[in-house]
């Protein structure tokens, strides 16, 4: 059984990936410091998979704290590195905090991999590295650009660090996964997206509004050159994204990668508008949302969706879950979590 270190494994995408890893016969070792996740998410993962999980409370940006994970576990087959700060607006206000945490944690992953002879790393990146692309869909051949936020720039710089390291170390393998817009939750409703403070992303804002935590949902921009005037994004179910990490890791441990530095888009290959997301949520959950149109946000692009051809062909990744699956699972998670909070008071 392959042992895999999962940094940020208690977080949104990390927790779903831990479930997928266990279901696929891997042995994840979760590392998290709960700076952007819930402590009880480990228990919820264990409830889903029906077994206990090896877990370390450690800060990946603190090499002394992080090294214990490597020292106490022999024959690590790979690392999936999720751990990072990820709030776009916060990164604009506190750029140094983002560069320090996100880049140092990646450097520590690489340095400890070298010391403990771990040869495989999967890096959690983002479609934000494409900036405002000149043509759609966005393929892996689309040039990357400097992202508009320090958060996005940490992903771009992280990719460049790994590319340079792989050139200098041919026996080390890294695969970059560029997510478009992961949404939804585990079908059980036990794990899902739980942002700190006011959500940056659309779906948790929708679910929090539906639950009554937010007075209304703000839709930024209804005058884009799209069918209904609202921005289009490539929304992909988080369980599909989690499964893609397992396929990627399998490619590395089976030594099927043709180069030691590879990168792939993760999406559905089609754009969905904000209004279409709202309509799907209302229909599948039999709810009405209170929303208003607000002016466009600075830095938002009208449309962004992926070409998934490379991931389809090479990783054998294909998104399976529908927009309705995303909307119903997100609401199931929100209700379950908030109801449990209420009942515990």
From TrEMBL:
Quaternary structure and partners: Homodimer.
Protein encoded by which gene: galE
Record pathway: Carbohydrate metabolism; galactose metabolism
CDD domains: UDP_G4E_1_SDR_e
Uppermost EC category: isomerase
InterPro entries the record matches: Epimerase_deHydtase (IPR001509), NAD(P)-bd_dom_sf (IPR036291), UDP_G4E (IPR005886)
Ranges for domain NAD-dependent epimerase/dehydratase: 4-261
Keywords annotated in UniProt: Carbohydrate metabolism, Galactose metabolism, Isomerase, NAD
GO-annotated molecular function: UDP-glucose 4-epimerase activity
Source organism phylogeny: Bacteria, Pseudomonadati, Bacteroidota, Cytophagia, Cytophagales
Annotated catalysed reactions: UDP-alpha-D-glucose = UDP-alpha-D-galactose
Cofactor requirements of the protein: NAD(+)
Name of the featured protein: UDP-glucose 4-epimerase
EC numbers for this chain: 5.1.3.2
Keyword rRNA-binding in record: no
Domain of life of the source: Bacteria
Record field: compositional bias (Polar residues): 139-152
Region spans: Disordered: 134-153
């Amino acid at each position: 059984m392959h042992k895999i270190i999962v940094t940020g494994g208690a977080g949104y995408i990390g927790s779903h990936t831990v479930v997928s890893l266990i279901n696929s016969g891997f042995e994840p070792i979760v590392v998290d410091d709960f700076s952007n996740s819930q402590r009880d998410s480990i228990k919820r993962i264990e409830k889903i998979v029906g077994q206990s999980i090896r877990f370390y409370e450690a800060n990946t940006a603190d090499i002394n704290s992080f090294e214990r994970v490597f020292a106490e576990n022999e024959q690590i087959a790979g690392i999936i590195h999720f751990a990072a700060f990820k709030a776009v607006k916060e990164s604009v206000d506190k750029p140094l905090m983002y560069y320090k945490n996100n880049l140092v944690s990646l450097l520590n992953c690489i340095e400890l991999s070298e010391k403990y002879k771990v040869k495989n790393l999967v890096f959690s990146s983002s479609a934000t590295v494409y900036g405002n692309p000149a043509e759609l869909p966005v393929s892996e051949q689309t040039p990357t650009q400097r992202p508009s936020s320090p958060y996005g720039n940490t992903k771009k710089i992280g990719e460049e660090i790994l590319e340079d390291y792989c050139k200098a170390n041919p026996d080390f393998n890294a695969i970059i996964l560029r997510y478009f817009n992961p949404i939804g939750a585990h079908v059980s409703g036990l794990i899902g997206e739980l942002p700190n403070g006011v959500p940056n992303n659309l779906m948790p804002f929708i679910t929090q509004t539906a639950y009554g935590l937010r007075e209304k949902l703000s839709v930024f921009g209804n005058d884009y050159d799209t069918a209904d005037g609202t921005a289009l994004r490539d929304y992909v179910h988080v369980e599909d994204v989690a499964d893609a990490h397992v396929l990627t890791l399998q490619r590395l441990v089976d030594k099927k990668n043709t180069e030691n530095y590879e990168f792939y888009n993760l999406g559905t290959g089609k754009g969905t508008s904000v209004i279409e997301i709202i309509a799907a949520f209302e229909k599948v959950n039999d709810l009405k949302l209170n929303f208003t149109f607000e002016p466009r946000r600075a830095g938002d692009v009208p449309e962004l969706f992926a070409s998934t051809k490379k991931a389809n062909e090479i990783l054998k990744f294909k998104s399976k879950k529908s927009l309705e699956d995303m909307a119903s699972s997100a609401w199931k998670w929100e209700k379950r979590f908030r109801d449990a909070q209420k009942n515990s008071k």
